[in-house]
From TrEMBL:
The entry's keywords: ATP-binding, Nucleotide-binding
Domain ABC transporter: 2-240
Entries under InterPro entries matching the protein: AAA+_ATPase (IPR003593), ABC_transporter-like_ATP-bd (IPR003439), ABC_transporter-like_CS (IPR017871), Molybdenum_import_ModC (IPR050334), P-loop_NTPase (IPR027417)
Native source organism of the sequence: Blautia caecimuris
GO molecular function: ATP binding
SMART domains the UniProt entry points to: AAA
Protein name as annotated: Fe-S cluster assembly ATP-binding protein
Amino acid sequence: MLELKNISFQVPDEKTRNTKEIGILKDVSLTLEDNQFVVITGPNGGGKSTLAKIIAGIEKPTSGQILFDGQDITDMSITDRAKLGISYAFQQPVRFKGVTVFDLLRLAAGKEISVAGACEYLSKVGLCAKDYIRREVNGSLSGGEIKRIEIATILARKTRVSVFDEPEAGIDLWSFQNLIQVFEEMHEQLHGSILIISHQERILNIADRIILIADGKLVKKGTKEEVLPELLGTANAAPSCDKAANRK
Ligand SMILES: Nc1ncnc2c1ncn2[C@@H]1O[C@H](COP(=O)(O)OP(=O)(O)OP(=O)(O)O)[C@@H](O)[C@H]1O
């Protein structure tokens, strides 16, 4: 079980020459139960990616505590969190020059896997495996391809907590349908928790719980029946222009 207790994240406000701070996350508490599928959604700039990075250990909260099975991991590095079983797929994945797709999948699996085994992960994310397995994970891959390869590495990793930041970004409609199935299968077969940041109603629809984050705060959490109607009802509301002022 992963618990976030009163997480806040502040950064210096450049507009005030760093004399003041901007609150990106404000006192966010949430629990990710074992085997639970949670989707975090909310308006752009609300703090969702920051929260995911805090879980992965990429950012450190200004205050608050993160517990994993009761162990305080707030000050733990990304590598140590990964060893504990927390994996994270970036909104914009990183490229690794000189490393092939096969190497990356083997590294992710943490053990020797066959080419056939690696190809299976690629097929799951809608890539024709033979076209990609020997390719380098460099700038020659398109945004959608690299995104799918990264999702395949998370599948290979089979960790206790898998965090995906907007997995749908850059993915075409056909592959998107596949992706939904991948997440459903992951949820059924993997004994771990899945946390997805998404704006897509179809991903929200397959979640056990939905969390709404806006303006750095946890605004609502509950089942899709509890959260979706209100969310869809407010989706057309005009965006606020005084967001920056509200953050203070
Ligand atoms: N290190 C930082 N310094 C300054 N501002 C930051 C920093 N990190 C995040 N922000 C700001 O905090 C806000 C929240 O960013 P974040 O990426 O977490 O939002 P998000 O909810 O994931 O948005 P989106 O839906 O657009 O991906 C944004 O306005 C962003 O510009």
